[in-house]
Structure formats: structure tokens, C-alpha cells
Amino acid sequence: TTAPTTSTGTTSSTSYAVKSGDTLTAIGAKYGVSVANLKTWNNLTSDTIYVNQALTIKGGTTSVGTTAPTTSTGTTSSTSYAVKSGDTLSAIGAKYGVSVANLKTWNNLTSDTIYVNQALTIKGGTTSVGTTAPTTSTGTTSTTSSTSYAVKSGDTLTAISAKYGVSVANLKTWNNLTSDAIYVNQALTIKGGTITVGTPTPTPTSTPTPTTSSTSYAVKSGDTLSAIGAKYGVSVADLKTWNNLTSDTIYVNQALTIKGGTITVGTTAPTPTPTPTSIASVNTTSSTSYAVKSGDTLTGISAKYGVSVASLKIANNLTSDTIYVGQKLIIKTTNTVPNATITTIATNSNVHVVVSGDSLWDIAQKYSMSVSELKAANYLKSDVIFVGQSLIIK
Prior knowledge:
The chain is of the alpha+beta class and 394 residues long. Helices cover 23% and strands 31% of the residues. The protein is built from 12 helices and 14 strands. It has helices at 24-31, 35-41, 89-96, 100-106, 157-164, 168-174, 225-232, 236-242, 298-305, 309-315, 360-366, 371-377, and strands at residues 8-17, 54-64, 73-82, 119-129, 141-150, 187-197, 210-218, 255-264, 274-278, 281-291, 328-338, 341-345, 350-353, 390-393. The strands form 7 sheets. The chain has a two-stranded antiparallel ribbon. Strands 3-4 form a two-stranded antiparallel ribbon. It has a two-stranded antiparallel sheet with strand order 5-6. The radius of gyration is 38 Å and the shape is elongated. The model is unreliable at 5-9, 60-74, 125-143, 193-201, 261-272 and 342-347 (pLDDT under 50).
């Protein structure tokens, strides 16, 4: 009589030759084992492996003797992979141990073309499982790497998004843009592929990004780049750059792009309450158009309107006293309004209204400021000011 035999568990081992593109993660996923086990079975101290290296892979436990029926269930794991620059279907297939044909089938691809940040579904092998020991889950967080791109002449959001394989909508969101307008040397944040890490790191607070508004101006008769620059508080050099001008020549009805001040998108400071202030009088400037008639001279016209010949020539960009019949002259006159009331912002600031003959140096001396402080307070890029302009005095 033979005593019953007690079943003993034995573990089967497989030898695997490492192929080009293999990683411990991919091999572990293929065989349904952990990277930690692979490293223990093969005495590895790092994740580095090399082509043709023989790895020992230990499989499930088999009972010798009377074995209770085991119910096995086929399960297929799926992974989402974000395509990176330089990736090909062949390289991705080799990395995950799957065929190019399967990759194309799982992702409904009709060709081998893929693009950066495309999400590819990768299905792993079928693994038989019986009773599974509880698994301790490790939280993983996806973080996105960012690139800074300096805008070049001729760039558009569409061209930049096509170059980096991202959408225009994402570009505008990442950079807090409210329109498609961008400017040369503007730094744009472009977020690349996704990297999986263990412990999530705190997300830094996003820094407000400056955006520039643009205005289109139609050139009028008598306009010059200097006058337009003074009117909008920008330099002639900027005007020429924004409009690709190689000289100071402009023509009537020409559309000029004028880029305004920088607006910071972020937390907005409370708006100061305007406060009306009564003053004894204020000078206002008005402009009149006069058509030159036969026999007219600058001296006669200036006497008629109570202005100087010098101011007539400045207002009309005249380099000599010569005028011709039918010529349109701009005549600027200054009127004094008694007992006027102006509205100022309730800050530690006053307002100075520019009058004929004023210069930044004169105004700065009057209010005990430097010219640079005056320009900074009024966001002036040049020393050009015009009659009737309101300057903030701090």
C-alpha cells in the first residue's frame, strides 16, 4: 500500500535573447512579470541590457501530483504611447515586441506615417492568470516637457503648430493668447511628449505671458512715419519693421500695422477710481484744414489764424516757405478753456497737457523729474510728444 503523494510546486524557467530596441519594461510586459523580478533573476543592478544578452524568465508554478483544476482567463493589456520626434512604427514595434502590422491594425493606420504626440494603442500578449496576489499600486503621474520657441519674421501660429505637431488652439492656451497675432522674438511655450514619472512634482505657478495688440492704420494725405509714430507713441524704426518698409516713403490709403502696448494677462490690479478736479483753465488744441488760394503766403495765413509760420511748417512737414494753390494745410490752434474740470486717476500722479513749444526736458524740469522717469511713467519709446497729449506726472 502506497501513501498518498503530496504535491510540490516547481517553477519553469525560460531563456530570452535580448533584441535591438528591447527594454526590461517591454520584456516584463511581454512575459507578464515585473522589472524587479527580471533584475533579481538575472543579478542586474541597473536597467541596462544589451543585444543578445540571455535573460532568465521564470514562469508560473506547476503542481506535480494531484492538481486541482485551475481556471485560466485570457486577458490582454493595452498601453497608450505618445509618439516622439524621430519615432517610426518599426522602432515602436521593436520597443514593445509587437509587429508593425499589428500596430497599424490597432490604430486604423493605412500607411506607416505617424506624427509627434499622436496617441498609439499598443496591445500586449495574452497572459493566463489564476489566483492573483494583491498588487500594490504605484501612482504615476504624466508630466509634459516644454520647449521655448522664439518667433521669427514671417512666422504664424499655423506654421509653428505644423512644425511641432501641435494644434493652434493648444499654442494659444499654453501662451495665454487671445488672438492669432504674434511678434518677432516673442517667446512661445510649446509642450512636447508625455513622460511618466513616479512621485508627482508640484506644478509651478504659470507666469503671465505678455501679448501684443495690433491696429491697422490707413495713411492719410500729409501723413509721415514720424507723425504717425508720434500719434501712437511708437518709433519710426518699429513702424518700418512691422510693415517691412525699407524707406520712409508711404502713400495715401496704405494700411500700416501698428502694435500697441504690452498687456499682461494674469491677475489684474484693482482699477483706481477717477476723480474730477477743477482747475482755473486748460489749453486745448484744434486742427483746421485750409486750401491755399492764389496770392496766399505762409505769413498771411499764419496771421489770419493767429499762429506762427514755424508751427505751420511743422504741422505740415514743410521745409521751405513755398506753397501752391489748392494745397491742403493743417492749421493747429490753441484755445484756453476757463474754469475747466479734468478727470484724473486717484493715484500719486498729476496730468500735464502738452502745449505748443513743450519738450520732455522742459516738462521734466518743471515737475522736478528726469526725462527717463517721465518717459517711463508714460510708456514713451522716443522723445516725440504732440500738442494736446496728456502726460502722467508722478
